[in-house]
Design a protein that fits this description.
The chain is an all-alpha fold. 78% of the residues lie in helices and 0% in strands.
Length: 288
């Protein structure tokens, strides 16, 4: 299949996988704290990648490692903890919607740091995205006093991290295979993640039945939602553009929304309008 068609197949698969990740995080938080969940997710992904991708490490040259460290930090390590912590206070549906700001931040950072070309329409897209986000957050804070919407800033920071990640990969790591990039990322993160696991009290918590019950969710999240999805995502970046690849984040909320409905989450009418405005803004910024 030619790349032009294949990129839409990758986009759909990633939307299904990552759209389901938010409900897995929600389930995992029933038995783990955010630091335990984030570090365990990384460890599962790293061990799986070392099994399937160990031989790909030999393709990584010395000059690549500093960029692999950067993409590991911004593409996975920091965001997994930001999302886990934010979802202790904010629903999985809202988390997925705010994650869709990634293409807008990809565009802004691409303009500011990487000197990519842009059109006036794309700037309007950024403006609509900010308006929609503000509406979503402010209305959520008013109608859901049991949720602390100040934690939304963590989700916005995570989307900025993702935006930096896709620009770094497209600019500095395009000559590596997706498997080499992903395996290299998690080689960098494995030791820090184990340290976080130890100091977060995971090895004491795992003796509790409630913690043992949720580990399967984190295993799926680590292997499928992180390791395999990252390989696919990095391939998508290589055959398309950073903005197109990050546009997967405006399909993710659709999947997450249906999972949320099944789990008794809901959105107010005003929040639905805010989400629609965000999606329109992303469409304007990503459209050729």
């Amino acid at each position: 299949m030619e790349n032009k068609k294949l990129r839409f197949v990758y986009l759909a698969i990633l939307a299904l996988v990552w759209g389901s990740s938010f409900i897995l995080i929600k389930r995992g938080l029933l038995g783990l704290n955010p630091f335990q969940l984030g570090s365990l997710r990384i460890v599962f992904a790293a061990l799986f990648l070392l099994i399937i991708g160990f031989n790909s490490i030999k393709n990584i040259q010395l000059r690549h490692w500093k960029y692999l460290a950067l993409t590991a930090c911004f593409g996975t390590f920091v965001p997994v903890f930001l999302f886990s912590y934010a979802q202790t206070q904010i629903s999985s549906t809202i988390s997925a919607i705010l994650n869709s700001l990634t293409p807008l931040n990809t565009l802004l950072l691409g303009i500011l740091l990487f000197k990519i070309d842009f059109q006036r329409r794309q700037i309007f897209g950024v403006f609509f995205g900010l308006v929609g986000s503000s509406l979503l957050i402010l209305n959520g804070a008013a109608t859901h006093p049991d949720q602390n919407y100040a934690y939304a800033i963590l989700l916005i920071l995570a989307s900025i991290c993702y935006a930096l990640n896709v620009n770094f990969i497209k600019r500095y790591l395009s000559d590596l295979s997706p498997l080499s990039i992903t395996t290299g990322n998690f080689v960098v993160m494995l030791i820090p993640a184990l340290i976080v696991m130890y100091y977060s009290g995971f090895f004491e918590a795992v003796q509790v039945q409630q913690t043992q019950d949720v580990i399967i969710y984190i295993a799926i999240l680590g292997v499928v939602g992180t390791a395999l999805a990252n390989i696919l995502f990095y391939r998508l970046i290589q055959i398309s553009s950073p903005v197109f690849a990050s546009s997967v984040t405006y399909l993710i909320p659709v999947v997450a929304f249906f999972w949320g409905l099944l789990d008794n989450e809901g959105l107010t009418f005003i929040q639905l309008i805010g989400a629609a405005i965000i999606m329109f803004g992303v469409y304007l910024s990503a459209k050729r």
